């Protein structure tokens, strides 16, 4: 074994956290893009309170559901780099995304809304599911 083989398992857990952070950044970028497209392409001429209301609504929906979808996507992207503990790594991806989400909420809102708790649960389910689906696909490939 080489020194990189010995260090690899620890790096995979850190990589899972990194993928979780990327999932949350992708969610934030999606919210910003949707709000900007709405403001500059579809709904020009509205008042600032109307734009703010749309942003809150879009952020709520995309933050909850998009965050879970991105968690699943990024957890699946991690799976080929692993050899075991797929669901556990998927959950770590979700926890990384959730940590950034909650930190941003506390920084921006000085609180954590209830929707963030629901979003965190969805992310955990999505991350675990990504690992489970990948593990099952490997098992099916071994049977063939």
Briefly summarize what is shown.
By secondary structure, the protein is mostly helical.
Task: Give the number of helices.
Answer: 4
The domain tally reads 1
What is the averaged pLDDT score? 90
The whole-angstrom Rg is: 18 Å
Proportion of β residues? under 5%
The total count of strands amounts to 0
Distance between the termini: 31 Å
Multimeric state of these chains? Answer: single chain
Structural class: mainly alpha
Main beta sheet: strand number and arrangement? none
Low-confidence stretches: 1-7
Helix content: over 70%
Shape, principal axes of CA atoms: elongated
Give the SSE order as H and E letters: HHHH
Characterization of this structure:
With 144 residues, this protein is an all-alpha fold. It has one domain. 87% of the residues lie in helices and 0% in strands. The protein is built from 4 helices and no strands. It has helices at residues 3-42, 48-78, 86-109, 114-143. Helix 1 runs antiparallel to helix 2 (48-78), helix 2 runs parallel beside helix 4 and helix 3 (86-109) packs antiparallel against helix 4. The longest helix is centred in the first third of the chain and has 40 residues, at 3-42.
Topology overview:
Blueprint lengths: L2 H40 L5 H31 L7 H24 L4 H30 L1
Helix pairs in contact: 1-2, 1-3, 2-3, 2-4, 3-4
């Amino acid at each position: 074994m080489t020194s990189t083989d010995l260090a690899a398992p620890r790096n995979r857990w850190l990589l899972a956290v990194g993928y979780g952070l990327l999932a949350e950044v992708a969610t934030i970028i999606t919210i910003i893009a949707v709000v900007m497209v709405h403001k500059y392409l579809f709904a020009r001429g509205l008042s600032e309170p109307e734009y703010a209301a749309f942003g809150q609504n879009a952020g709520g929906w995309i933050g909850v559901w998009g965050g879970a979808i991105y968690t699943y996507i990024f957890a699946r992207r991690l799976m080929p780099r692993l050899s075991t503990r797929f669901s556990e790594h998927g959950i770590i991806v979700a926890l990384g995304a959730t940590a950034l989400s909650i930190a941003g909420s506390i920084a921006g809102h000085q609180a954590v809304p209830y929707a963030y708790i629901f979003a965190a649960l969805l992310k955990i389910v999505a991350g675990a599911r990504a690992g489970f689906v990948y593990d099952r696909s490997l098992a099916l490939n071994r049977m063939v």
